[in-house]
Amino acid sequence: MDLFRLARYSGCALLLLLMVSCDVFAILFAPLDPESTLDEIERRVRLRNDTRAVFTYDEYRELMQELAGEHYMVLPMDSFRITFDTTRIVVGMRHDIDCHPFNALEMADIENSFGMQSTYYILHSAEYYWTASEGPFVRFAVMDTIYRQLAEKAGEIGVHNNLIEMMTRYDIEPLSFQLEEIEYYAALDIPIYGSAAHGSEDVTELGLSNRMIYADFSEYGTFDYRGKTYEYGRYSLGEFGFQYEALAIDYDKFISDSGGRWSISGVNDQSHDGSLGVAIQALQSFEPGDRVQILTHPVWWGRE
Ligand SMILES: [Zn+2]
Predict the structure, then answer these.
(1) Kind of pairing, strands 253-256 and 263-264?
(2) What is the 5 CA–ligand 1 centroid distance (Å)?
(3) What's the 295 CA to ligand 1 centre distance in angstroms?
(4) Which residues pair with 97 in a beta bridge?
(5) What is the pLDDT of residues 91-150, one digit of tens each?
(6) Who surrounds ion ligand 1 at CB < 5 A?
(7) Four-way CATH pick for 3-300: 1.10.3470, 1.10.1660, 3.20.20, 3.40.50
């Protein structure tokens, strides 16, 4: 990375000074150039994704209304993994922010209005997260505000792990990249406890899943891609800086809006219409002591 070129591009001598004197982050902070103001990033994200919404925020309130019942206990994932209560349905509420952190903030507001908190997993390969236009990996520093707001409202921020795609597509070294990312969040006063694997099509095509980067979930292995050999399953979740992986948490029910339709673990998708009512009906069938993960993707929410 040509630091001087980047600093000149940013027009910010302080940025250069920080990078040279601290040398803490190989993941560089993006300059506040006109292309990466927060408004510009939000406009791009909304333009590309807002029309994809399937569910309304009123429907989200309906889901929260159900979960506000006294027989539920709704928690962010790091609390969920250590909380057991046989007298209530214990819910770990999780959101994989694939492409829409702005909808995520709106959903966190709705949760807060019902006195609830949850976990939002931020995708490190997303277009709002970074740009490669001026070097190998430059984070949009303006997004810090969004991550801080989300952490405050939601209660927990996690990493939406797409490390296998990141190393094949952008040639990052996964272990040091991940440790630096956690360090970066720490500098924003955002503690990171866990990760949730992103279902990347590119990774699936390789016959792998992002969880396999961790030795906890895979034997050590290698694969070749475009003439280069990559490793997985070499380092543990703990070595990557995490205390948990979302799907490895102890739970027995799973409800998800993946693909813009609700699916319920153990229930044939063809037998229902995928509407919110299906999810609420499933919740109503659960018993005290059941442990439920609810997964949403903010891109499917906010339909007008
Ligand atoms: Zn994802």
Answers:
(1) antiparallel
(2) 34
(3) 10
(4) 122
(5) 999 999 999 999 999 999 999 999 999 999 999 999 899 876 655 678 888 899 999 999
(6) 96, 98, 198
(7) 3.20.20
Whether pLDDT at 178 is above 60? yes
**Exposure pattern of 253-277 as b/e (b: 16+ CB <10 Å)?**
bbbbbeeebbbbeeeeeeebebebe
Centroid of ligand 1 to alpha carbon of 197 (angstroms) = 7
CA of 198 to the centre of ligand 1 (A): 4
Cα(100) to centroid of ligand 1, in Å? 11
Domain boundaries, the chain: 3-300
What DSSP letter does each residue of the chain carry, written as one string? Answer: --HHHHHHHHT-HHHHHHHHHH---SSEEPP--GGG-HHHHHHHHHHHHGGG--B-HHHHHHHHHHHTSTTEEEE-HHHHTT---TTSEEEEEEEEESS-HHHHHHHHHHHHHTT--EEEEEETTSTTTEE-TTSS-EE-GGGHHHHHHHHHHHEEEEEEE-HHHHHHHH---HHHHHHHHHHHHHHTT--EEEEEE---HHHHHTT--GGGGBTTTS--EEEEETTEEEEES-B-TTTTT-SEEGGGS--SEEEE-GGGS-EETTS-GGGS---HHHHHHHHHH--TT-EEEEEE-GGGB---
Cα of 86 from ligand 1 centre, angstroms: 31
Mean pLDDT, the chain, rounded, equals 89
What's the whole-model pTM score?
A: 0.89
Question: How many angstroms separate the CA atoms of 92 and 156, rounded?
Answer: 12
